[in-house]
Prior knowledge:
By secondary structure, this protein is an all-alpha fold. 67% of the residues lie in helices and 0% in strands. It has seven helices and no strands. The protein has helices spanning 3-21, 27-33, 37-47, 52-65, 80-90, 94-116, 127-133. The longest helix has 23 residues, at 94-116. The mean pLDDT is 89.
Amino acid sequence: MDISKHVLASALLAWLLYPFAGLQSLWVLFGGVLIDVDHYMYTLFRFQRWSMYYSYYYHRYHRREFNHYEPDILHIFHTWEGFLAVFVLAFYSSPFFFILQGMILHIFMDFIILFKYDLIEARALSFFGWLRRRDYL
C-alpha cells in the first residue's frame, strides 16, 4: 500500500485519540508509518542496495510492472513476532501502546490489499516459520 495512505490513516487515528491521550497519540504515526522500514531492510540485505529510492521503486513499481512477486518475503516488523515484541513492551511503556495501535492499523490496511490481489503468500507472516522454510532452523 502507498505510504501516503498509511500516513493519512495513522494521522486520522492519532487525531481521534488525541482528546484521550494528548501528545502520546502522536506515537501512532510512528508505529503506523515507520513499520515499513523493514521494506528498506529487505532491499538492503537482498540486493545490497543502500538507496531508499531503489527500495521504494522496487516495492512500489518494479514488482508490479514485471509481475515479479517473490513468495514469502520477510518484512520483519510485519510478522506476528514483531507485533508480540511491541505488545509486551506496551505493558511497560505507554508509547509502545500507541505504536502498537499504529502497527495494527497499518497491517490491517496491508492485509486488505494482500487479500484483494490474492498475494497473502507474498509475505512471511512469521519470522520463525520463514527461518524453518529456509532450513535455517
